[in-house]
Amino acid sequence: MQLPVILRGRAVSGRGVGATLGVPTVNLDTVVTSAVAGGVYCCWVFPPSGAGRPGVAHLGPAVTFGQTKPTLEVHFLDGAGVEHGTTLAVQLVVRLRGTIRFADAAALTARLQQDLAQAREYFRSAPPPDGAAGLASGPTPEGF
Ligand SMILES: Cc1cc2nc3c(=O)[nH]c(=O)nc-3n(C[C@H](O)[C@H](O)[C@H](O)COP(=O)(O)O)c2cc1C
Fold first, then answer.
1. What is the residue extent of each domain of the chain?
2. Alpha helices in 9-104 (DSSP H)
3. Rounded CA gap, 79 and 68, in Å?
4. Could you give the CA distance from residue 21 to residue 43 in angstroms, rounded to a whole number?
5. Count of C-beta atoms within a 10 Å radius of residue 119
6. Longest Cα separation, the chain
7. Where are the alpha helices (DSSP H) in the chain?
8. Which of 88, 100, 84 is nearest to 136 (CA)?
9. pLDDT for 122-136, tens place per residue?
10. Is domain 5-124 in CATH 3.40.50.720, yes or no?
């Protein structure tokens, strides 16, 4: 699989578990297929207008919590999330790891902090995002 990959979707409510782990996420209604390897990615997130924002994405089922349905969710490294219903383009730029089934929420939380640190390190010297990637509006065929 060659990166970057761009996925699109609308921000929807998740199960609300992310915030309890200290890493609030925006869930997307993107139809996740096996075409893109699951796991944790550094990403640029493009709202319908404005600049790309750095984030960390998880693509796949939250197996630690017994979930089987793969989802796409994003944690914004620059703070605030976005309103529900906002269409986002998520440009996956670097894959950090695969999805892991952790023994418990505490083990996942510890790993999330490592993921965030790695992502911040990446964005310290990352090239700026390609503005053209922010084509978040328009029709979304097959959920992409
Ligand atoms: C950076 C990041 C990495 C994640 N890695 C894993 C993982 O390895 N295993 C897992 O089961 N869930 C992982 N998740 C998903 C969390 O379990 C998920 O955010 C949590 O269940 C909240 O879901 P909710 O938004 O539906 O409330 C990850 C989430 C993020 C943001």
1. 5-124
2. 17-20
3. 29
4. 20
5. 23
6. 41
7. 17-20, 105-124
8. 88
9. 999 998 887 666 665
10. no
* Residue at token pair 């965030």: 116
Residues touching ligand 1 (Cβ under 6 Å) are 14-18, 23, 25, 27, 40, 56, 58, 62-65, 73, 75, 99-100, 102, 108, 112, 115
Q: Output the CA 7–ligand 1 centroid distance in Å.
A: 18
- What one-letter code names the amino acid at 121? E
pTM of the model: 0.91
Pocket test for ligand 1, best of 15, 43, 64 (most atoms within 8 A of CB): 64
34-82: pLDDT as tens digits:
889 999 999 999 998 888 999 999 999 999 999 999 999 999 999 888 9
